[in-house]
Amino acid sequence: MNVAVVMYDRINLISLANVLSFVKSFQKAKIKTCAFKPEIVDEYGLKITPEVSGESIYGADIIIIPDGIGALNLRHDEIFLSWIKSASNAKVKLGFDLGTLIFAGAGFLNNKSACIRGGYKNALSEYCDVSDTKVCESGDVISVSEWGDEIKAILAKILS
Q1: Of 18, 62, 77, 104, which sits 20 to 30 A from 135 (CA to CA)?
Q2: Cβ neighbours for 28, distance < 8 A, ≥ 6 positions apart
Q3: CA separation, residue 75 to residues 17, 31, 121, 126, 152 (Å)
Q4: What pTM was computed for the model?
Q5: Helix (H/G/I), strand (E/B), else coil: 1
Q6: Rounded mean pLDDT of the chain?
Q7: How far is CA 27 from CA 19, 119, 150, 153, 158, in A?
C-alpha cells in the first residue's frame, strides 16, 4: 500500500512524527514523504528535506496531510492545490487538524463533513459542514481534530 505523507512549509513536526511513527509500524505500508518543493521549513524554522519533491502524488493509495499552521495559507494557493489534486484517485485522504483545510481548498470536501479544532471551525465551514467529533469519515476523506486511539484504530484497519 503506497502512502504519501505531504510536507509543507510551517508543518507541525509533532504531527508529522506521530503519523510517520505509527504508519511505519505496518509492514504493508510503503511510505514516502512528499512535498511540492525540495526543502520545507517547519513552524519553528527547522529545514527538512522530503524524499520526493515536485513530482505528482498520483498513484498513492493513501495521502496524509499532517497538522501545521502553513495550511491556512496553502488552502488558497492554486498552484499547490493543483499538486494536491494529483492525488484525487487515492482511496483514503487523511487530514490531521489544519491539514484538513488543504483537502478542503482542493475541493475534496465539497458536499461532505469534516472536523477541526475549535478555533478553526469558521475557516473549515467555508468549504463543508463541520462536525464536532474528533474523527470524521466522509467518503474517501477522513479528518482528525485530535490524535488519539480512535484514529489509530481506523488507521490500523486501513493499513492491515
Answers
A1: 77
A2: 1, 159, 160
A3: 22, 24, 14, 11, 26
A4: 0.96
A5: coil
A6: 96
A7: 15, 36, 21, 16, 12
Q: Does residue 20 sit in helix, strand or coil? A: helix
> Residue 11 has which C-alpha cell?
508543518
Written as one letter, the residue type at 39 is E
Listed in sequence order, the residues at least 6 apart from 128 whose beta carbon sits closer than 8 Å to its beta carbon are 104, 109, 110, 111, 112, 113, 114, 138
| Count of beta carbons in the 10 Å neighbourhood of residue 48 | 14
Question: Do residues 33 and 15 lie in contact, with contact meaning Cβ atoms separated by under 8 Å?
Answer: no
CA 24 to chain centre: 16
Tell me, what CATH number does 8's domain have? Answer: 3.40.50.880
Dihedral sign of CA atoms 107, 112, 114, 118 in order: positive
- Per the structure, the count of domains in the chain is 1
What range does the domain containing 17 cover? 2-159
Are the beta carbons of 26 and 160 closer than 8 angstroms? yes
